[in-house]
Amino acid sequence: MIGRRIKLQSPMKTLSFRAPKGLSFRAKRGISFLLALSFLLTMAAFAQSGGELRFCLRTEPKTFDPLLVDDDASLSIRYLTGGVLVRVNRHTQELEPELAESWKVSKDGKQITFKLRRGIQFSDGTPFAADDVAFTMQRLMDPALHSSTGDAFRSGSGTVTTRGQAPNQITIAFPAPIVELDRLFDQVAIMSAHSPKKEAAVLGPFMVAEYKAGSSVRLERNPNYWKKDSQGRRLPYLDSIRLDIQANRDVEMLRFKRGELDLINVLDTDYFDRLGSTSPQLVHDAGPSLDSDFMWFNQVASAPIPEYKRAWFRSTNFRRAVSEAINRDDLSRVVYNGHAQPAVGPVSPANKFWFNNHLKPEGHNTQVALQRLKADGFHMQDGTLLDKNGNTVEFSIVTNSGNKPRERMSVLIQEDLGKIGIRVNLVPLDFPSLIERITQKFNYEAAMLGFRNIDLDPNGQMNIWLSSAENHAWNPQQKSPETAWEAEIDKLMRVQASTEDPKKRKEAFDRVQEIVYEQAPLIYLINQNALSAVSSSVVGANPGILSPQTFWNAERLTLTGTATARR
Amino acid sequence: MKVARWLACVIVVAVCALSLGANWLAPAGYAKQFREAPNAPPSRQHLLGTDEVGRDRFARVLYGTRISLLLAPAAALVSTALAAVLGGLAGYLGGIWLKLARAFTDLFLSLPWLFLLITVRALLPLNVSPLVSVLITFVILGVLGWAASARVLSTSADSLRNSDFVLQARASGLHGPRLFLIHVLPNLKPVLYAQFWISIPVFILSEANLGVLGLGVAEPLPSWGSLLRELEGLISFREEPWRLVPLFLLMVVLTSFQLLLSNEEVTA
Question: How many domains does chain A have?
Answer without folding.
Answer: 4
